[in-house]
Amino acid sequence: MKKIQDRKSLKKICTELRAERKKIVFTNGCFDILHAGHIKYLEKAKKLGDVLIVGLNSDKSVSIIKPGRPVNNEKNRATVLSALEMVDYITIFSEDTPYDLIKVVRPDVLVKGGDWKKKDIVGSGIAIKTYSLPYLKGFSTTEIIEKILKGIK
């Protein structure tokens, strides 16, 4: 199974999954430097359904959200995510938000990290259920980058 899919292929896959009555979970993010917080989050997300789809911010969209980033390019970030057992499919999106992608996926469950309030989660009106999973303190890509930079100086 090829985990990294374009939007058109993903739409077909989602149609097939719904026909099989699979519960689709969707999340999105930058996943720039994968860390234990990401792993715990993705594990919890996967437990909410049968299939976990990750919308991965493109390099361009990451650079708008987080100036000076990404550290790893979108191809490398997608490759790392595809190695994770709990992630079933990944697709890269370039828009400012994943709203159009969420309309294509039409997930049963939409998940974001605890730094998001449920009412602010983009696409929550499309999914049947929306969750803001608890944020794990001490796990932050920005903090990791800052720690590395302090060690270099």
Describe the structure.
The chain is globular. Strand 1 (24-29), helix 2 and strand 2 form a beta-alpha-beta unit. It is of the alpha/beta class. It has helices at residues 7-19, 36-46, 59-65, 74-82, 99-105, 141-152, and strands at 24-29, 51-57, 89-93, 109-113, 129-133. The protein has a single domain (7-152), classed as HUPs (Rossmann fold, 3-Layer(aba) Sandwich). It has a 5-stranded parallel sheet, sandwiched between helices. The longest helix is centred in the first third of the chain and has 13 residues, at 7-19. 39% of the residues lie in helices and 18% in strands. It contains 6 helices and 5 strands.
Written as H for each helix and E for each strand, in order along the chain, the element string is: HEHEHHEHEEH
Sheet with most strands: 5 strands, parallel
CA-based shape: globular
Helix content: 25-40%
Q: Say what the CATH topology is.
A: Rossmann fold
